[in-house]
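Margin note: ligand = DQA.
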Amino acid sequence: ASILVIQGPNLNLLGTREPDVYGKTTLEDIHQKLGELAKAQSVDLNTFQSNHEGELIDRIQKAKQDGVDFIIINPGAFTHTSVALRDVLAGVAIPFTEVHLSNIHQREEFRKHSYLSDIATGVICGLGAIGYELALQAAITRLKK
Ligand code: DQA
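Resulting structure:
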C-alpha cells in the first residue's frame, strides 16, 4: 500500500511558527515519525510540502498516476480558500483524511469552514502533531481491510 502525506503553505515553518498554536515539533520530526510507523507496517510512505497551490495540485494529480492508495493532507490556509484543491481531490478520487494541528473551530470565524471536510473520509484537528500519526494508523487499518 502507498500513502502520500501532503503539507500545505507555511507548514515548513513548524517548530518556529506560532509554537503556542502549532507546537514545537518540526515538519521533519513529524515526517520522520510517520516514516518509521509506516515502515514498521510495510507501507510505502511519501511526503510533500509546498507553499504553492498549483504545486500541491500537480502533486495530487501525479499521485493518481503513481497509484497512491490514500492521502493524508494538511492544506494549511488553502483549507479555507481553495476550490481547486477540493476539485483535484474529488477528481483523482483517492480517499483522504484532513489533518490540522490546531483546533480550527476554536479560532477565527474564517477557519471554521473547510472546502475539503465534506468529501474527506475523516477530519482530525486540535491534537497537534499526533493527529498525523492517528490519521496514518486509521489509513493503514482501512487499507488492510
Ligand atoms: C492549520 C490551520 C489553518 O487554519 C492554518 O491556516 C494553517 C495550519 C493547522 O494545521 O492547524 O496553516 O491547517
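Helices lie at 19-22, 27-40, 53-66, 83-92, 130-143.
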